[in-house]
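Why do we care about 3D structure at all? Because function follows from shape, and shape follows, mostly, from sequence. That is the central idea of this module. The next example makes it concrete: a single protein chain, its amino acid sequence, and then its structure expressed as tokens.
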Amino acid sequence: MRIHGGVGLFCGYVSSVLLSHNEICNTSYSGISCGWGWGTNSYAQGNQFTYNNIHHFCMTLGDGGGIYTLSNQPDTKWRENWIHDMPSRTAGGAIYPDEGSGNMEIYDNVCSAIGNKWLHLWTNSIHDINIHDIFTSTNSMLNNGTNCPVTNLTVITNGNWPQAAKNIMDSAGIESAYQSIKTAACACSLSCPGNPAPIIPFN
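And the structure:
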């Protein structure tokens, strides 16, 4: 049985969790989802999402993201992730802190081949998030958050990524010492914004 609402990696009320050097692809909903509830207070804090290669996500459902959070998460950092190939048919965005998300820092991430928004802050309950030094292939973003500045944004529309962005892309995902755990080539070979790849059936 397939659960379309499942995500690649889920963490609920967690503290000091590190999600790093994962490759997450071909998900029906979000790539990474952390936090729960829609309030301003939460046990979740000090979490880190780093060096992940997240692609071909939200292939069935919308209103999700490459990385998605709920509720306040003080001292949480999203950095040096490569988030790419999001279908244009979905709502949400590559970077999606949802209701109540706050007191985070999001920086040094690359968002490419995004068919929707690279950033989705849709309501003012999303608060106190410092977003800076982002590389993206689209200008499309929504920022209705409270005290959520976006600074040092680099938009690349011709595919000529600067070296700093290339370094992030090269470092994201499974480290070279562990590449052998991938027993088959990734099936996500199509570009989502124009021609989404199919979902691989679960056995």
